[in-house]
Design goal:
The structure is a single chain. The protein is of the alpha/beta class. 40% of the residues lie in helices and 20% in strands. It contains 20 helices and 17 strands. Strands 3-4-5-2-1-6-7-10-11 form a nine-stranded mixed β-sheet, with helices on both faces. Strands 14-13-12-15-16-17 form a six-stranded parallel β-sheet, with helices on both faces. The chain has a two-stranded antiparallel ribbon with strand order 8-9. It is elongated. 49% of the residues are buried.
Length: 480
């Protein structure tokens, strides 16, 4: 049995800021446990300590000396749904209310990467594969191949780096390489660790990992272009043969309309018409919308940022509201967008509601109660919301980018296939055009709409297919 260590800054159920946590939680459970023994290592954040500390098992104490970093840490173990999670406890870096966004993030990430290797040595645990997730753990392959290469068991580890969102790279002053990671200046001077006279964690990971994956096939192609490559497209094109796009799935046990305790009325393919209708009425009541179960109810469950298309949605909203619709928006983001949505609610009481914040139970209720979920993203590496919405029979309306393009099949009236609606150009006009088309389908072709709901609910959104692709890649990297 081969040992695989997931290295990540977040995972459900412990801490989540985005889709990364969903993947690190669901993928290990879906992998073949007879062939791969999977563990996950992550920091012990304050919220984790408050909720799970008493159930953890203390393993070891380590010392981390790396440049100017001289810290100690404790290693704890916790079993969750059959997967062992290893937690690195250091109050100086991790006992905080948030996960990211601190002035010493470069030191925090550096400490974590080095601590993972010191943990391996102390526990005498050396995985065959390290599966690093995003830039927070991306310097680990370089540490293994440069600083710790004298230890054969570490030198022989294979590395797969998964890019969840290339927009976030971990770019810092070059002194981070020496002050916190203790690399020899030679590797900066020869270009291995340098990026435009800075330190860029993601670039280092792309260079030193054996294989690179990202979370959809379309996004794997997009990030090799100047438009979406975020200045790393040249390096990604250089690693083209080692770059794979594997679309995400979701945990279908957590997101299941037949068993979901967060929704008003449980349902499946046999009773989805009643289930959707009852959940829609419940959602309307919960949000203070008019009790109009036949009115098209559209919504967004999203961060309200430029990436998620909040600007083009706002550009189209007045035209959308001229139709017989209700609109519900859940999320936080840029203050100008939040203000616009608050004003829309005031001006359209009973027809438009904005929940400023995030509420997991309400999100589930929206996935079950909405008719149409909007995801007009500028770019979307994979996307989770469209997968959840299809699972619940809410049709996604998406822009054709990244994982949205790979997972949502637009309606084809001739073959009667499709799981939603999509548009190409990033503009309010294109969004409005496809909305008008979806609006027509809802009111004029109710049987076709029911067919789309069935198609969406039948679509395989699990991690099973993705897990098989990762298993193939694990076998391939072990033979590299």
């Amino acid at each position: 049995m081969k040992k695989v260590l997931f290295v990540s800054f977040e995972s459900l159920p412990f801490v989540k800021t985005g889709g990364l946590a969903d993947v690190v939680y669901a993928l290990p459970k879906a992998l073949n446990k007879e062939e791969f023994e999977v563990r996950v290592v992550m920091p012990m954040f304050k919220t984790i300590k408050e909720r799970y500390y008493e159930g953890m098992k203390y393993l070891e104490h380590i010392y981390v000396h790396s440049g100017f970093i001289n810290e100690e840490a404790n290693i704890y173990s916790y079993i969750n749904e059959g997967i062992e999670y290893l937690f690195i406890e250091n109050d100086n870096f991790f006992n905080r209310d948030g996960v990211y966004g601190y002035g010493d993030d470069a030191a925090r990430f550096s400490f974590f990467n080095v601590a993972v290797l010191e943990m391996m040595i102390k526990l005498d645990y050396y995985p065959d594969i390290c599966h690093e997730h995003d830039y927070h753990s991306a310097v680990l392959p370089a540490l293994c191949k440069i600083r710790y290469n004298a230890i054969e068991s570490i030198r022989n580890i294979k590395h797969i780096l998964t890019i969840h969102n290339l927009a976030y790279q971990g770019e810092y002053d070059k002194q981070v390489l020496f002050d916190y990671l203790a690399f020899d200046y030679y590797y900066y001077e020869n270009g291995d660790l340098r990026f435009n006279d800075y330190c860029n964690f993601m670039k280092i990971g792309i260079v030193f990992a054996d294989y690179i994956t990202t979370v959809s096939k379309t996004y794997a192609n997009e990030i090799q272009t100047p438009e979406f490559g975020n200045n790393l497209d040249i390096i990604l094109r250089y690693r083209h043969d080692d770059l794979y796009g594997i679309v995400n799935g979701i945990d279908t046990e957590s997101f299941n309309p037949a068993t979901d305790e967060s929704i008003h009325h449980k349902y499946n393919l046999k009773n989805y018409i009643t289930g959707k209708r009852e959940n829609k009425r419940s959602l309307q009541y919960q949000l203070g919308l008019n009790d109009e179960p036949d009115t098209l109810l559209i919504g967004m469950v999203s961060r309200l940022t430029f990436q998620k298309g909040a600007d083009i949605f706002l550009g189209a909203i007045q035209d959308i509201l001229r139709h017989n619709v209700q609109v519900a928006v859940l999320g936080t983001g840029e203050s100008k967008h939040e203000y616009s949505f608050k004003m829309l609610e005031q001006e359209n009481k009973g027809r438009f509601v904005y929940y400023c914040g995030y509420n997991e139970a309400l999100a589930h209720s929206m996935y079950a109660g909405l008719d149409l979920l909007l995801m007009p993203s500028l770019f979307e590496p994979c996307g989770i919301s469209q997968l959840i919405s299809m699972r619940y029979g809410t049709l996604p309306l998406v822009r054709e980018t990244g994982g949205l393009k790979d997972t949502v099949e637009p309606l084809n009236e001739y073959t009667m296939s499709g799981t939603g609606f999509s548009f190409s150009e990033y503009s309010s006009n294109d969004l409005l055009k496809v909305f008008n088309y979806a609006y027509e389908q809802y009111y004029d072709y109710p049987e076709r709409w029911k067919m789309l709901i069935k198609n969406a609910m039948k679509y395989d959104v699990s991690f099973d297919k993705s897990a098989r692709e990762y298993e193939d890649l694990y076998r391939k990297v072990l033979n590299k």
